[in-house]
Specification:
Number of helices: 9
Radius of gyration: 17 Å
Shape: globular
Order of helices and strands: EEHEHHEHEHEHEEHHH
Strand order of the largest sheet: 3-1-4-5-6
Strand content: 15-25%
Helix content: 25-40%
Length: 233
């Protein structure tokens, strides 16, 4: 019998097709780290915040499928920050936390296990510096505080991805993102300088961070992960 992981998130996690290659989401790569009986139901959609995801009925769609002993990964922040768009914007310590709690309650009402994941760090370096700008403001901290208050495990992808990007450096880290010159990919003849969305190699790297986070949580979460990956490090 299979174990189901539902993934509610935005474009950094979403499934892509050949039409947007090489863009890839973390949800596409996560199955590489999971046991054969674990199936990912990737509900992530480009451009969604906690607010728009709920308003469009996407959480309701998960609620209709999720069941006892399933998992719900919840990763938002990029679009909740967009204060110019009232269909997506949320305040970190107000409706952002309230919306996240709705995801948590949905999972728990069906006997499933919620996991909060802070948003992937954007690859935006300070001018002439090896340090990254803080583009996510209070959202990661708001998520972590909510997790602590509601006793929900949190994987701090924002902090872990920031460490790796700063260690790797501005130029070398471009290989993981949709940042490349003209002529390299047929879908993007003019090239691209996108510091948010991932190429497949990046999706593998940052999905590995999510898998490592699940492994470190131990117990039922670690049981999702390939034994070979658990044995590493």
């Amino acid at each position: 019998m299979s174990t189901k992981i539902f993934y509610a998130a935005d474009s950094t996690v979403a499934q892509n097709t050949v039409l947007t290659y090489p863009q890839s989401g973390i949800g596409q790569a996560l199955p590489l780290y999971l046991k054969n009986n674990v199936v990912v139901h990737n509900h992530a959609v480009n451009g969604r915040s906690t607010k728009s995801f709920i308003d469009e009925g996407r959480l309701m769609a998960i609620e209709q499928e999720i069941s006892k002993h399933d998992f719900l990964l919840i990763q938002f922040g990029h679009n909740d920050e967009k204060s110019e768009d009232n269909t997506r914007y949320t305040k970190p310590y107000e409706d952002y936390q309230a919306n996240l709690e709705k995801f948590i309650n949905t999972a728990r009402a069906h006997g499933a296990y919620p996991v909060l994941i802070t948003p992937l760090c954007r690859r935006r370096f300070e001018t002439d510096s090896s340090l990254l700008l803080n583009t996510h403001g209070d959202y990661p901290e708001a998520m972590k505080q909510l997790g602590q208050r509601l006793d929900v495990p949190v994987i701090d992808l924002c902090a872990e991805s920031k460490k790796l990007l700063e260690k790797t450096g501005e130029k070398e880290s471009r290989k993981w993102f949709m940042y490349f010159p003209s002529g390299q990919y047929q879908n993007y003849p003019d090239g691209k300088e996108d510091n948010t969305h991932l190429r497949y190699e990046g999706a593998i790297v940052f999905a590995g961070m999510v898998a490592k986070g699940l492994k470190q949580l131990g117990g039922i979460y670690a049981e999702l992960i390939l034994e070979e990956f658990q044995a590493k490090e």
